[in-house]
Amino acid sequence: MNYMPGTASLIEDIDKKHLVLLRDGRTLIGFLRSIDQFANLVLHQTVERIHVGKKYGDIPRGIFVVRGENVVLLGEIDLEKESDTPLQQVSIEEILEEQRVEQQTKLEAEDRKRYIHYSRDGCRGSRKPGGAP
Amino acid sequence: MFRYESLEDCPLDEDEDAFQGLGEEDEEIDQFNDDTFGSGAVDDDWQEAHERLAELEEKLPVAVNEQTGNGERDEMDLLGDHEENLAERLSKMVIENELEDPAIMRAVQTRPVLQPQPGSLNSSIWDGSEVLRRIRGPLLAQEMPTVSVLEYALPQRPPQGPEDDRDLSERALPRRSTSPIIGSPPVRAVPIGTPPKQMAVPSFTQQILCPKPVHVRPPMPPRYPAPYGERMSPNQLCSVPLQPGRMSPSQFARVPGFVGSPLAAMNPKLLQGRVGQMLPPAPGFRAFFSAPPSATPPPQQHPPGPGPHLQNLRSQAPVFRPDTTHLHPQHRRLLYQRQQQNRNQHRNLNGAGDRGSHRSSHQDHLRKDPYANLMLQREKDWVSKIQMMQLQSTDPYLDDFYYQNYFEKLEKLSAAEEIQGDGPKKERTKLITPQVAKLEHAYKPVQFEGSLGKLTVSSVNNPRKMIDAVVTSRSEDDETKEKQVRDKRRKTLVIIEKTYSLLLDVEDYERRYLLCLEEERPALMDERKHKICSMYDNLRGKLPGQERPSDDHFVQIMCIRKGKRMVARILPFLSTEQAADILMTTARNLPFLIKKDAQDEVLPCLLSPFSLLLYHLPSVTITSLLQQLMNLPQSAATPAPSNPHLTAVLQNKFGLSLLLILLSRGEDLQSSDPATESTQNNQWSDGGDVHGNTRTSTNSPSSPGQANLYTYKPSVPLFSLC
Predict the structure, then answer these.
(1) Domain extent listing, chain A
(2) Does the distance separating the beta carbons of A5 and B428 come in below 8 Å?
(3) Which of A88, B109, B253, B611 has a CA 20 to 30 Å removed from the CA of B504?
(4) What is the CA radius of gyration of chain A?
(5) pLDDT score for B456
(6) A89 interface with B at CB cutoff 8 Å
(7) What interface predicted TM-score (ipTM) does this complex get?
(8) In which domain, by residue range, is B673 found?
(9) Could you give the number of structural domains in chain B?
């Protein structure tokens, strides 16, 4: 039953499995149990999924209450198609390690860029290369 | 407190076979200790407690007789032959019922005294049915409904003698004052959120599975959790060590299907608040995304046992009607229809429901999902009510323009399809937004009582002036040329914006005609005319001279992309003379405009209104237009070998198209009206002449222009002159 045709409403998404992307970059997957007028969400049996390359790892988190303003997007997960993914699931430790490595390489690349940038003539800033961003 | 001691003495050994291990004994002893010395023993009002004890003691002998009698005729004995054990239990004063508040026992009207299983759920929710009361799971053991509500709502029950005593003795806290309708937070032996110490869970599961009654104390600490509004704390739920294969829902499933007798008197709030708590969670983080497996057999009887009961009961309970008076009546009707449908769906979930089959996959999932419908229908309606409120508007075309247009388009499409006879168009449910009269709120600044005069309080509606900004106009001398140019451009932009607003209003008049009353229409017409005139004035510059001295104003507008688009939209509204004037001016200045349009390339948008216009113009105008366009001298002087004006025109797509349209129109007019003046003829042929000449002199015209040029087949007379 179409609750409110022509509008965007979360009411029909209740009790369905959703993937929620947050503003801080986290990906949560859980059953949407409750909403309110600010689109605050209550997620049940939530899992935080970390993606690195072609691998992903799930960290079980339990119940999440997400403030509406922090949600970038969310979408329903088709339970039948859920397992149909080219990505490979790995253990939590492994994915966290991968994530750390990825962050490391990113930082190094950034530092290198900054160093090159600042070591050019006539381009002096107050920042030290290799420092915190 | 003499009974208390007897309880301790009460041997738990008899029922060792009923439940596993003696571990519980230790746990219970600890529990006793806690109640006596620990947090459970806080009791400020010992006098009250004493008095109550005394009361119950008097009632005890009466109750005992009743119980023995009733046990025999207990036909709803699902768990087997516990009647035999009745006497046993009675004599031992088993504590199985301490969860049950004596007040509740009195208040709840059931068939005469059931012997609830030890460690059973507090079944006050399930009041109408004694069997329900027997369904006790480890989790429900924790729940205690509000004493007060039931006490007031339902007739008194004969007291349960022995259990009352024990209950009271265990329950150290006095009864709180309560309100008749809503109730108040229940008494807590332990602060809310305290994790329970031990759970004698296996005993419970055993109880239900095994026919014998179990002399076991149910887990104590959160004995009186909040009835509604508060879900069970995760601690409580998770610490219940459910063993695989012993899930409570499956236990419920064992109970042969019965329909809870209507709890007419039951407070629906209580019910609804309880709904979510009836089912235990999966312990820990098992299979997250699979439905909790009911490991024990016959899960197929129906969805988790309490489910249908819950829904049945809920459906029979009085419906909450949220305040929907402000909603559009049709929407309100829709809401209730939906509610009815939902209820029907739930009813169908029990046993064979064909209606739900088309949504089977989703329903299946819901059926297996014990956490479904945590959000009540009432709450969903509340959220959608808020959403609808935000859509209230007196002028939807103003507030929600794109939405309205989009749905109009869709409707037109479907109407068109229907006309074609494609069959019944698919149902497009429309959102009916409430139509609310706009209330004008006059802002009144905050006034404090007792203050002399008015205090200025700065708020959103009444902001305080923070900066004294003074507008100073610059004198002409100071400005440099660039500034002048910039200012001029800005002025042009402002004029464009103002004219655009007028244009939007004028375009809107059609819709307003339909909406307004008959009397108002002439006034609207006048308004519209007036606006059109001011638009034209804006375009041409407001100089009231007989002849527009300069095209400059117009040209400036036409240099800006938005201006060109706007002119294209305005043209249909102008009178023929006015529009011809515009066209003339455009033709006169076309090379300049073409140059300015090099980046935007928006001129072609003017083509269609111009061509429409041309069909209304007389031949005189056409001829003069042609002259303008080609910049022919009025007298047939020797045509210059190179005509930069014409060259520029021809090299531009717009110019070329315009020329062609002009020529074709002229042709039509010539052919349709043979009796034309010779001067006109001459002029026309001159035009044709020049046309032929310039064909050779153009260097690399744009390719579409080329194509246009050669597709145009001038009539014989023209070519004859070339």
Answers:
(1) 6-121
(2) yes
(3) B611
(4) 20
(5) 65
(6) no
(7) 0.82
(8) 479-634+643-689
(9) 1
